[in-house]
Amino acid sequence: MSDACGCDEPTTEGAEENEQEAERLVDVSELRAAAVAGVLLLAGYATGWAGGPDLLGQVLLWAALLVGASTFVPSTLRRLAKRKIGVGTLMTIAAVGAVLLGEVGEAAMLAFLYSISEGLEEYSLARTRRGLRALLSLVPDQATVLRDGAQVVVAPADLRVGDLMLVRPGERVATDGVIRAGRTSLDVSAITGESVPVEAGPGQDVFAGSINGTGALEVEVTTTAADNSLARIVRIVEAEQSRKGTSQRLADRIAKPLVPGVLVVAALIAVVGSLLGDPATWIERALVVLVAASPCALAISVPVTVVAAIGAASRLGVLVKGGAALEALGAIRGIALDKTGTLTANRPQVVEVATTGGAARDEVLTVAAALEARSEHPLARAILAAVDTIADAQDVEAVTGAGLTGTVHGRPARLGRPGWLEAGLLAADIKRMQTGGATAVLVEHAGTVIGAIAVRDELRPEAAEVVAELRRSGYEVAMLTGDNHATAAALAAQAGIEQVHAELRPEDKAAIVAQLRQQRPTAMVGDGVNDAPALATADLGIAMGAMGTDVAIETADVALMGEDLRHLPQALDHARRARRIMLQNIGLSLVIITALMPLALFGVLGLAAVVLVHEIAEVVIIANGVRAGRTKALPLTAAPAAAPAPAVVGAR
Fold first, then answer.
1. What pTM value is reported for the model?
2. Which candidate in 163, 338, 429, 557 is catalytic?
3. Which end of the chain is more exposed for a tag (fewer CB within 10 A), N or C?
């Protein structure tokens, strides 16, 4: 809670205890005290209405005052000892003043209503914090490990790096690890927001909280439970929630000086009014002005929205680094998308095989795969994935900037770019492949070119849909890539992007983003590592597919944990809505203060009425802020179909 509200700042330990206790409204101590104070207050007034003993009525009103005041007076005194003042100070002065004027009932009503608002505020913040820390509940209570050939059940906290976990179908993974045996489909929806289970097998990473599908797995532990991906996400978000955005800084700039300012104004009203009129009347009006101008609703208007929105985003698989990032995300009007790994999945595939000279498709792929098996080139994986078995090759050497040479089946073989190898009859096919956005390589065996292979990093299936949705929402979309112009233009056309910047180095991307920022607030969406300069230059850096990538999570302002690009427009819509709610809350808070002060000054409203209006407004603002925690999951999508077999095109 803001300093302006005048409440103690809880320690981390205390905060965690509150989160555990405040599961229900009745668990909040302020609300329990308010309930007791309300009963006593009602009984006190009822005694007077029924003509009961005045002493009994006064005792009940005093009891209501003491119980209600116990929720904020002690913390106010502790803050005063530290030379800090807040709304609690204003309320305490108003209550004491009302008692001195003989209005014990008014003071008790103030204490009752203020304790309700304090309790609801604490409950709403605890509830939104629980929403974030609920991620940690995805970790199971126990895990099965294989030690000395036997299965041992241990608590996740007792897992050690190097342990071999046994994860049965339907069980959750206890901590991060690497699959050593078994194949399955993993439900990671609660972590990344992905709606489709992910196929996983030996050598692939798994993350804490994932639900194992159909197959038993042996998983080697790579992190302890205290440092797994879920725990890191929660720690980062909780640490970054203190980063305040423009709206929150504005609210704080208004609220903090308003408290001492109100004290000065109230004192002047009391002194000047007493000199010119009835002292009792003007002192009472000064106390009412004191309460009317209290900025607690203003101070809480943004924090409750930020905490609710960030917690909700984390449950969608979107990691937002604090209020500043949330507000920046909501103000973005331009999107710069990196191609590789963002618009595409960064998984190149063989999309076409053209043959000549009577060679068969399998022969072309066999020779190419034999050479690529010894290569670290990015295209090697795609070509190797297109064959069932890999032939042996001898004397394989890389020719820098050109390709590979070697011997396959006892005959010389070469694989490389057009220009280094003559395309011959395949020239038209090579041109068509490149125009279609693919990288083309030629294959030569025994001194004769036998075929060409087209490899392309295909667009994500949802890319065109996402770009269309962004444009409908009014965003300007640009694509940035280091690829050649032909490939970039072909993929941009498929995605529906008109503004394309190709053949860029990392520093070039940063320069382009700087230019885009001059036109409108711009976010850069990239992989969080290679695009670091552009991410840092943009108004907001968004890392794509950041689950398990510490660099992306730590450096980006926003991280999309999953691989579904549809989370981008979802995150943008969520942030815009949260930003609207922040501005609504700030506006309502200022309107209430502006309207109540003259009404209090001229005696139109008394102390109890002003307190009631203020606290109702605060409840409305809290409820409105909590709305930022409402989100909708992405609709289910069909599992991606297997890539079609490469087409075989015979040259004329």
1. 0.68
2. 338
3. C
